[in-house]
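Deliverable D2.4 — example input (structure tokens):
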């Protein structure tokens, strides 16, 4: 059970020791000891765990807790964090499930826990069956997603998107009258990108958008645009459509694929939130 896991981890860290046939005892903290590093390539020097533990316990005692209450509080918090780190559910409304797919695509290779895409309309039922895990969404949808998660005692975390500085700098340099094509599996991203482009360049650029699955709209965009910006999941269909229709195109557009959807620091922040070791 969870308490056994906590004691086992404390024993590994040298805070307590198990005596066969006798029980579990707190080690003499005045005696020097070796701290066992986590296994694998992420093993690294750790802070003074004894001091951190003592300060945490002292803080609870100073707040008026008994030792038993302090243990219960710490065990409950550790248990909750273990549940939060069991899996990641990426959730946005079904109409913009593409945003969830983009987030999940980048999180999956970076996290050592299962990552699942769940439409917001189904999130309540999924958490009802099992409330282990952390729900991740974009800041646009945090409020409704958080309201659902809180009903099940589950944490909801918003991830920050890439600032797309390189792409925006490129668009600033395009000559007036250029046609720009935006291709994404996320309708929300397309709408936001249109607004940003209009705020930057007004009516100086003609902007077209397409979901890669709508082949006729995608082909029309590729025929008209001089520059095409797309996300990674869309790139294969963009390139395939260009190859298949090369004879119909007077010129090939310049295609730029945005390599990152999430901000550079947000994945590390999420790893810390769910209790994973830092890269």
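Example output (designed residues):
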């Amino acid at each position: 059970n969870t308490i056994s896991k906590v004691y086992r981890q404390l024993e590994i860290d040298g805070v307590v020791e198990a005596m066969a046939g006798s029980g579990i005892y707190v080690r003499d903290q005045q005696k020097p000891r070796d701290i066992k590093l986590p296994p694998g390539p992420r093993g690294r020097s750790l802070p003074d765990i004894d001091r951190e533990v003592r300060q945490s316990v002292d803080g609870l005692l100073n707040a008026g807790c008994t030792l038993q209450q302090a243990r219960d509080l710490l065990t409950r918090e550790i248990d909750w964090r273990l549940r939060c780190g069991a899996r990641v559910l990426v959730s946005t409304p079904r109409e913009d499930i593409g945003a969830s797919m983009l987030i999940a695509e980048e999180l999956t290779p970076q996290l050592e826990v299962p990552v699942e895409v769940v439409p917001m309309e189904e999130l309540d039922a999924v958490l009802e069956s099992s409330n282990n895990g952390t729900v991740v969404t974009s800041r646009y949808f945090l409020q409704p997603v958080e309201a659902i998660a809180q009903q099940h005692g589950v944490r909801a975390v918003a991830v920050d998107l890439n600032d797309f500085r390189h792409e925006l700098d490129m668009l600033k340099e395009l000559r007036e009258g250029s046609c720009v094509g935006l291709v994404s599996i996320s309708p929300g991203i397309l709408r936001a990108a249109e607004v940003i482009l209009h705020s930057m360049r007004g009516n100086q650029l003609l902007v077209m958008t397409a979901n890669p699955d709508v082949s006729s709209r995608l082909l029309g965009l590729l025929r008209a645009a001089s520059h095409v910006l797309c996300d990674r999941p869309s790139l294969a269909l963009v390139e395939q459509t260009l190859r298949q229709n090369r004879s119909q195109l007077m010129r090939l557009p310049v295609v730029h694929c945005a390599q990152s959807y999430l901000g550079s620091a947000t994945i590390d922040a999420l790893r810390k939130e769910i209790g994973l070791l830092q890269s």
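The CA atoms of residues 181 and 228 lie 4 Å apart.
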